[in-house]
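User: Could you check the structure of this?
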Amino acid sequence: MRRILLFCVAAAALCLPARAQNASPAFWTIHGPKGTVYLVSSLHLLPPQIDWHRPEIDRAMQSADSFVFEVPTGESERGAETQFILENGLLPAGEKLSMRLTPDGRRDFHRALELAGVEQRNIDQKRPWLAEVVLTVQSMYRRNYSALHTPEGEAHDFAARNGKEVRYFDTTEQQMEFLAGADRSNSTEQFSAVLADFPNQPEREDRFVEAWAAGDVTMSASLVAAGLRDLPDEQRLLNERNRDWASQIEGMLGEKHTFFVAVGIAHLVGPGGVPALLRAHGVTVEGP
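Assistant: Sure, the predicted structure tokens are below.
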């Protein structure tokens, strides 16, 4: 599952079973000396019929005067994304990704392109890490997934409509560095494995989505750990981000604000997740 799983675990669900339409995502409350932080787990893309609203989460959103998300997504940030991709996401001029693959790899590549609804000419100049992300995201879009009805999507819209302060944990560059991962080589070994497994992703991701929808942080942590078991560098990057976010939240607790924080669930579960890190620092965290 390699980096595709890393991206999906941090960001989205590929296929949602019908029984998970009423979701109860994990939710934490953290009271500090001056401030309060409400922390809700999110997925970056969901089908529109998913209802994740719970009274305690809606009350927290209504009471917050400051909202915190992973990374900004405005027009200026798109320019930074484009620049990062130009510098880190494209193969040297004249090279094609498909030509780096074995015959079996090219067969799997064409199958993945068909499943994702992507033309080969739009992916052939991308480095393997970026091609993996594009294929995954496009396959989700093709199944009508959207960011509009996720916890973070609706919270961002609520904050904008009501003139609330909005903050972000990371810059666009930090987010792109995380997606690109530690390995910037053009090796196709990992990419070929992802391509071979591409048709199986929705079924496997069902388990993760069910865990998120049920608020099952133990199962979610197990699935995150399994997906990163052979990715020590990516695990290190995730741990570094989580430690930085936990430190930022500790700083928020010293402010006279009520914060509503919505981020990807991979940052919130397991011993390296933000709630566990805060508890290890002596902060009282109410929730799972």
